[in-house]
Task: structure prediction
Amino acid sequence: METLTYNGTQIEVNAEGYLKDMNQWTPELAREMASQENIELTDKHFEVLNWLRAKQKEGTPLSIRKVGNSGLVDIKQFYQLFPGGPLKISSKLAGIPKPASCI
Amino acid sequence: MQDVLEKPTPKVADVKVDKNKGKVKKVLIICSKGKLEDVYAALVMANGALMEGIQAKLFFTFFGLEAITKKHADHLHTATVGNPAFMPGMPTVVAGLPGFEAFASYMMKKEMDKLDIPHVTEFIQMIDAGGGEIYACKLAADMFHLKKEDFLEEVKDIITVGDMYALAEGEGTQIIFI
Result:
């Protein structure tokens, strides 16, 4: 079991660094995690993160294509916001599990 | 010789693997076939690589060129004849009836829609948007009398086999042939 300590709170994460409980997520935690990925979160990033969290709560399977059709960003912008694996990285920063998507 | 035989090699499981050492950094996927399932295999692997932060280059050649033409990209078929894995037990004569292949391909595309798998042109747009690069083979394009304007906009260029190998340059590149 791995944990991440933020502001004195212990947050459980899996071996790849994904939060075990999405309710432990805060925007500040996301900023902290993003700095590890060398990303500085802007409002646009947060729009995407919040959208991902909402979809995760609904139980919708996530894919890059769905993010592209979200109306928030197109696929090109999505790659620019989260370089080096947009769906994986954004899911991690959104505090949701790693999506099991091939598309 | 005797010495070599007597020394057992250490078990792989005991060796710690440095994940950063042998990471795949780039894939060059060559698609030489124009069947629906072959083209999708190439597209899924290229897009999947980009999703993992791996660079992806796609090179279409021979019948694979069909997949990147404006005319045929979204109208690819699966083979119902000469494809034993397709509906095992189906007699070849039936599978070869006019319209059967179109019907089977239509059904297959319907199943893909259910899984949210995009059509070929959209898939290619996604790969392009993700920084993937798509090329057509010069020799095959000449043979099929295809010009730059016959291909989808995302097709970067028509290149030679030598240029194709240049795309694979660098450490950590894998070439996949379909």
